[in-house]
Design brief:
The complex is a heterodimer of chains A (87) and B (1214).
Chain A (H helix, E strand, L loop, with lengths): L8 H11 L10 H18 L1 H11 L3 H11 L14
Helix pairs in contact in A: 2-4, 3-4
Chain B lengths: L2 E7 L6 E5 L8 E5 L3 E7 L5 E8 L4 E7 L8 E6 L3 E8 L4 E9 L13 E4 L5 E5 L5 E8 L5 E3 L3 E2 L5 E9 L7 E8 L1 H5 L4 H5 L2 E9 L4 E9 L4 E6 L10 E5 L2 E6 L2 E7 L2 E2 L10 E8 L4 E7 L3 E10 L2 E12 L3 E6 L4 E6 L4 E6 L9 E3 L5 E2 L2 E2 L3 E2 L7 E7 L5 E7 L8 E6 L6 E7 L4 E7 L6 E5 L10 E5 L4 E6 L3 E3 L13 E5 L3 E6 L2 E5 L5 E5 L6 E6 L3 E6 L3 E7 L5 E8 L4 E6 L11 E6 L3 E6 L8 E6 L4 E9 L14 E8 L3 E7 L6 E8 L6 E7 L2 E7 L3 E7 L2 E6 L7 E5 L7 E6 L2 E6 L7 E7 L4 E7 L4 E9 L4 H19 L3 H13 L3 H5 L9 E8 L9 E6 L4 E9 L9 E8 L11 E10 L4 E10 ...
Parallel strand pairs in B: 1-92, 23-34, 83-87
Antiparallel strand pairs in B: 1-91, 2-3, 3-4, 4-5, 6-7, 7-8, 8-9, 10-11, 11-12, 12-13, 12-14, 15-16, 16-17, 17-18, 19-20, 20-21, 21-22, 24-25, 25-26, 26-27, 27-31, 28-29, 29-30, 30-35, 32-33, 36-37, 37-38, 38-67, 39-66, 40-41, 41-42, 42-43, 44-45, 45-46, 46-47, 48-49, 49-50, 50-51, 52-53, 53-54, ...
Helix pairs in contact in B: 3-4, 8-11
The chains are: A mainly alpha (87), B mainly beta (1214).
Family (chain B): Belongs to the RSE1 family.
Protein name (chain B): Pre-mRNA-splicing factor RSE1
Subcellular location (chain B): Nucleus
Chain lengths: 87, 1214
């Protein structure tokens, strides 16, 4: 990489995308966007204990189970990725 | 509208808890995080949990861990919060606060996916701390000491791994080798890219060890190995000579021991016999106990069963892992094993408990070990057990917890002076109706009847150095009764007190002599038994007395004051006389200040509505120093020293002030500050206490002088964590009171009321409410009041539960099996059944057996709150066929002769996953029979969705069925549809009505204002909110205004702008033409947000109410974490300005403890609007005095005036 590239807008964006998970880009597809939103939401539910309790109440599960469930869902929050050809 | 937010009841639920030696020394304390509050608690000698310190941090505490530097005696606390900072706290014993030792910023604030704070872990030797996020980021800080032995913290070292989710992190005990941390990781990068789903199904969790190289100052991934895909939690295993080191990995159904270079040692977690096969067993909370010679772990499953895990090992080789059933207690969010043999169990819902260990599970019990682990073709062979009664633990104390408050109503059903707060709390078998009364809870110690109607009571010690009181003296209209305090309290006659006359005062005089003042004189009983009697001159009688240990002032009829002092020889000598202009109503002398000869001031109240301060100094004896006129003749006076703050280094720079308290005949308590030098009275405050003139008495509370005021109910004025609080006691009206101290009861109060002598104690200081509990069966959802019959209707429903009948049957089956298997003896079965009946609250301990998620159990209950316990339920109707009740209301159909009917909305077979689905929804209509004690089904109407909201409207029933708002009328066999509107976006969760307007709350999209046009029989939406709010509760404020709370912890008010409101009311079409146009995919008009505030906790209920007679109406809210707060509207611009500025200065001068900026916290989702945070303002008294002075100066006031303002506004609310 040349020295001038460091100030290139694209490389700056790349740096941001590497540093902050979920930073978008021009070619972001619907699926990727949704996956990020969902992961953010689950992380927020896990972080806010009252919210976690609220879900636990609704589903009549223990809070620990609910937390584990949300962690597990972060793996595939929106189901399988679409085929690239279809895009 | 400007509002003042004040938390009345701090959150009672617990997020996490850690134990350690935070004070330093031998005692162990527990730090408890309650969401936004940090508490330091510890069990006292008698096993009662006491709160030492409690602080609101204005942030979300997500994780806590304690650590200790080697060689130190004291633990530090690391807090993982939403502040994007790591916080290290140290408890300061002298000032009773947490000191922030370090605060290092590493990221953005808020609970974010990649900002650390979710997990904290420490090296067991206290050399490093790791703080991690759910994904990617982990930071390691090196902890050390500097030359002055202060704790230092390094800059962060990164241990990030992108595209990776973390389930748990913990420190690994490896002695004094380089610190290691273990983490459960799951890499999702491939699963995201793979459309076939193969990568996702092959995604593997790994256990990774991170090593902090102290020499290189660098963190590296040392070791990573695949582990069971159900892994969710890690536990540190002691190492470095104390054990084999490594970690326990808790996974679904398994516990696995793992260490670097060590084969897995796996054991299965025993399962309950009645657990459905498809359900796993997950460990949700852990506690480690470590002694010099041994260690064990207590792991609790999601069903409440605790297992004791031990390891057989030799050196660093673990040969066997044993999991033994220990006991079953309600599911906890955190457990702490204390060295003193206690287990603190912080329940996730419902009361917390303190247990004492009876045994450590060394007896025979169900056990699963790695040695006996059987692997078959279907997988590992499970081990079964049956939960039983507590064997190893015994519960010795409970801490009340309201978590979660499901619904709340404020009403005065008991017809008392103040209204009661009815709350629905808890979940499943632990649910309850709790009735909260404003006031301190009081526990009765003894009560005995007296011969006659007493009018006064005192307690005296025999010697000033005695720890306990010797006598209780009760005065009757014509006699005096002396009771001695020993093992029991009994009457004595050898006390030398005159018993044939009433008494006016009885007290200890000098070091060891006693004084009895009666209408005709003063009787002075010397230590050696000699009695000196002073007689009143002429026909005059003594009417009032004021005394302390060395000074006595009596008022004779006619208004003459005579002042006595005790001289060096112990004689009571007359010093001075003074003629008052009229009869004396009351008088008081403050106690002799330490190291002084006498107290300088005498306060005298007269019937001419004045209070005078007289000097008792020899130089200007009986000179009037100041006069204060009051609104009504004073009845009782008390001089009380109030050290309102413990600011400054040693507390000395904050001057204590002496308050003159006067109970006036109009029921007002009048308080004013007495200048210690001049005797001038300044800074007056008054508060209405009750219908009777308050009588004031001094008692001891936590070793300090406090004040009891007896009006139509008793009040206690005391100092709690730097605040002077005046709170009612939750007790009957009393006549006369005195402090009481004996062997059995160190700090109590003895009082007379009617013909009764009562002894009680006040234990839980600082609490705002006294609660009584009525147990319920399932998770309560909603309730309504039937004001006509003063009863409540409660709907309860639980998902994944069996109905009472099914449970009963399975229990019977289970017993039959047991009986026949063992010895086939029928007698045994009968016995066991008896036992089961004794153990009526067993379900509360074990929880209900789990059923499939499409099973529902539900009931409708009518309850008379005046009765106690189970008797209070007058009618209980269990719903059948997986039907669950979700909404209810009373409805009065017009032109029908049924009177008040009860409508209940139910859903049959409701399921949330994979998509919300139901078999059917119903609206039941019940007739109320038996004077509101029972209900009778009239008919049941099938609807197509879940009716989540019901409301009466113009003699019809309004129902929100899914996204449809519908008007029903009553038919013979079913409800009849009259009109509907299908334009609501998601699900209707609340309906309020006022005149012809209908205020509909949508589950995701805030409020919609509707109108019903009778002539066209049409419902239409004329205004809605522009912000998508996930409503959790709502309340109708006025014609144009609604208050709501959303799922993210915000409270907000919306208002229809005045001009639009007028337009709609004046428009003959009611804005209908406009409605046809619409705006932004919604209604033509938009509501304006006028108030916005982030509470930081899910608000589940809102209500407008006034908690004190004559107090301002405020919005009361209850939250999931079990806290109750109030929003009070300011009444004047001046007050708004004051609190606005005070809040601003507090934000600047006193930033919150856990590093979250106050303003951004209160604006977490939307910018805070027009609400001032009383919780922050009320931290003002805890500031050092110079800081208080600085802030007060900026506000052009004195600190005392600021304190008075804070007190005033609190008094308006509660």
């Amino acid at each position: 990489m040349q020295a001038s590239d460091r100030f290139n807008i694209n490389s700056q964006l790349e740096h941001l995308q590497a540093k902050y998970v979920g930073t978008g880009h021009a070619d972001l597809n619907r699926f990727e966007w949704a996956v990020n939103i969902q992961r953010d939401s689950y992380a927020s539910y896990i972080g806010h204990y009252p919210m976690l309790s609220y879900f636990a109440l609704a589903e009549n599960e223990s809070i620990g189970r609910e937390r584990y469930k949300f962690m597990q869902k972060m793996l595939l929050p929106c189901g399988l990725a679409p085929d690239r050809e279809e895009e | 509208m400007y509002l003042y937010n004040l938390t009345l009841q701090k959150p009672t639920g617990v997020v996490c808890a850690v134990n350690g030696n935070f004070i330093g020394g031998k005692t162990q304390e527990i730090v408890v995080a309650r969401g936004k509050v940090l508490d330091l608690i510890r069990p006292d000698e008698s096993g009662k949990i006491q709160t030492l310190y409690s602080v609101e941090v204005f942030g979300t505490v997500r994780s806590l861990i304690q650590f200790r530097l080697t060689g130190s005696q004291k633990d530090y606390l690391v807090v993982g919060s939403d502040s994007g900072r790591i916080i290290i706290l140290e408890y300061n014993k002298e000032r009773n606060v947490f000191d922030k030792v370090h605060q290092e910023t590493f990221g953005k604030s808020g609970c974010r996916r990649i900002v650390p704070g979710q997990y904290v872990a420490v090296d067991p030797k206290g050399r490093a701390v790791m703080i991690g996020a759910c994904e990617k980021q982990k930071l390691v800080y090196v902890l050390n000491r500097d030359t002055a032995a202060r704790l230092t913290i390094s800059s962060p070292l990164e241990a990030h791994k992108s595209h990776t989710i973390f389930y748990s992190i913990t420190g690994v005990d490896c002695g004094f080798d380089n610190p290691m941390f273990a983490a459960i990781e799951l890499d999702y990068s491939e699963a995201d890219q793979d459309p076939t789903g193969q990568a996702a199904s092959e995604a593997q969790k790994h256990l990774t060890f991170y090593e902090l190289d102290l020499g290189l100052n660098h963190v590296s991934r040392r070791w990573s190995e695949p582990i069971d895909n159900g892994a969710n939690m890690l536990v540190t295993v002691p190492g470095g000579g104390d054990g084999p080191s490594g970690v326990l990995v808790c996974a679904e159904n398994f516990v696995i021991y793992k260490n670097q270079g060590h084969p897995d040692v796996r054991a299965v977690i025993p399962r309950r016999a009645d657990l459905p096969a498809e359900r796993g067993v997950l460990i949700v909370s852990i506690a480690t106990h470590k002694q010099k010679s041994m260690f064990f772990f207590l792991l609790q499953t999601e069903y409440g069963d605790i297992f004791k895990v031990t390891l057989d090992y030799e050196g660093e080789r673990v040969s066997n892992l044993k999991i033994k059933y220990f006991d079953t207690i309600p599911v906890t969010s955190a457990m702490c094993v204390l060295k003193t043999g206690f287990l603190f169990a912080a329940s996730e819902f419902g009361n917390h408990a303190l247990y004492q260990f009876q045994a450590i599970g060394s007896e025979e019990d169900v056990e699963a070990t790695s040695a006996t682990l059987m692997e078959t073709e279907e997988g590992f062979q499970p081990v079964f057990f049956q939960p039983r009664k507590l064997k190893n633990l015994v519960r010795i104390d409970q801490i009340q917890s309201l978590m979660p408050i499901m619904d709340m109503k404020v009403a005065n059903l008991f017809e008392e002076e103040t209204p009661q707060i009815f709350t629905l709390c808890g979940r499943g078998p632990r649910s309850s109706l709790r009735i909260l009364k404003p006031g301190l809870p009081v526990s009765d110690m003894a009560s005995s009847s007296l011969p006659g109607l007493p009018n006064a009571v005192w307690t005296v010690k025999k010697n000033v150095s005695d720890e306990f009181d010797a006598y209780i003296v009760v005065s009757f209209p014509n006699a005096t009764l002396v009771l001695s305090i020993g093992e029991t309290v009994e009457e004595v006659s050898d006390s030398a007190f005159l018993d044939t006359t009433p008494s006016l005062a009885v007290s200890l005089l000098g070091d060891a002599s006693l004084m009895q003042v009666h209408p005709n004189g003063i009787r002075h009983i010397r230590e050696d038994g000699r009695v000196n009697e002073w007689k009143t001159p002429g026909k005059k009688t003594i009417v009032k007395v004021g005394s302390n240990r060395l000074q006595v002032v009596i008022a004779l009829s006619g208004g003459e004051l005579i002042y006595f002092e005790m001289d060096m020889t112990g004689q009571l000598m007359e010093v001075e006389k003074h003629e008052m202009p009229g009869d004396v109503a009351c008088l008081d002398i403050a106690p002799v200040p330490e190291g002084r000869q006498r107290s300088r001031f005498l306060a005298v109240g007269s019937y001419d509505n004045t209070i005078r301060i007289l000097s008792l100094d020899p130089d200007d004896c009986m000179q009037i120093l100041s006069v204060q006129s009051v609104s009504s003749p004073p009845e009782s006076l008390l001089l009380l020293e109030v050290q309102a703050s413990i600011g400054g280094e040693d507390g000395a720079d904050h001057p204590a002030s002496v308050f003159l308290n006067a109970g006036l005949q109009n029921g007002v308590l009048f308080r004013t500050v007495v200048d210690m030098v001049t005797g001038q009275l300044t800074d007056t405050r008054s508060r209405f206490l009750g219908l009777r003139p308050p009588k004031l008495f001094s008692v001891m509370v936590r070793g300090r002088r406090a004040m009891i005021c007896l009006s139509s109910r008793p009040w206690l004025g005391y100092i709690y964590q730097g605040h002077f609080l005046l709170t009612p006691l939750s007790y009957n009206a009393l006549e006369y009171a005195a402090s009481f101290s004996s062997d059995q009861c160190a700090e109590g109060v003895v009082a007379v009321s009617g013909e009764e002598l009562k002894i009680f104690t006040i234990e839980r200081l600082g609490e705002a409410f006294d609660e009584s509990v009525i147990p319920l069966r399932y998770t309560p959802r909603k309730f309504i009041l039937l004001p006509k019959w003063k009863s409540l209707v409660i709907i309860e429903s639980d998902q994944g539960a069996f109905t009472a009948q099914e449970r009963e049957e399975s229990k019977k089956e289970c017993f039959e099996m047991d009986g026949t298997n063992e010895n086939g003896n029928a007698m045994d079965i009968a016995e066991e059944e008896d036992e089961e009946r004794d153990d009526a609250f067993a379900d509360e301990q074990y929880g209900y057996p789990k059923a499939a998620s499409d099973k529902w159990a539900s009931c409708i209950r009518i309850l008379d709150p005046k009765k106690q316990g189970l008797d209070s339920t007058t009618c209980l109707l269990e719903l059948q066929d997986n039907e669950a009740a979700f909404s209810l209301c009373t409805v009065n159909f017009h032109d029908k002769d049924h009177g008040v009917l009860l409508a209940v909305g139910t859903a049959m077979g409701l399921q949330f996953w994979p998509k919300r689905s139901i078999t059917a929804g119903f609206i039941h209509i019940y007739k109320i029979v038996n004077d509101g004690r029972g209900i009778e089904l009239l008919h049941k109407t099938k609807v197509e969705g879940v009716p989540l909201a019901l409301c009466q409207f113009q003699g019809k029933l309004l129902a929100g069925v899914g996204s449809v708002l519908r008007v029903y009328d009553l038919g013979k066999k079913r409800l009849l549809r009259k009109c509907e509107n299908k334009l609501f976006p998601n699900n209707i969760v609340s309906i309020h009505t006022y005149r012809d307007r209908i205020y509909v709350g949508d589950m995701q999209e805030s409020f919609h204002y509707c109108k019903y046009r009778r002539d066209e029989n049409q419902l239409y939406i004329f205004a809605d909110d522009s912000v998508p709010r996930w409503l959790t509760s709502s309340f109708h404020i006025d014609f144009d205004t609604m208050a709501g709370a959303d799922k993210f912890g915000n409270v907000y008010f919306v208002r229809l702008p005045q001009d639009i409101s007028d337009e709609i009311e004046e428009d003959p079409t009611g804005g209908k033409i406009k409605w046809e146009q619409g705006k932004l995919n919604g209604a033509p008009n938009k509501l304006e947000e006028i108030v916005q505030f982030h509470v930081g906790d899910n608000v589940t209920c809102l209500q407008k109410a006034s908690l004190i007679p004559g107090g301002g109406e405020c919005i009361i809210y209850g939250t999931v974490m079990g806290s109750i707060g109030a929003l009070l509207a300011f009444s004047s611009r001046e007050e708004v300005d004051f609190f606005n500025h005070l809040e601003m200065h507090m934000r600047q001068e006193h930033p919150p403890l856990c590093g979250r900026d106050h303003m951004t916290y209160r604006s977490a989702y939307f910018p805070v609007k027009d609400v001032f945070d009383g919780d922050l303002c009320e931290q003002f008294p805890s500031l050092p005095y110079d800081l208080q002075k600085k802030i007060a100066d900026e506000l052009d006031r004195t600190p005392a005036e600021v304190l008075k303002k804070l007190e005033d506004i609190r008094n308006k609310i509660i």
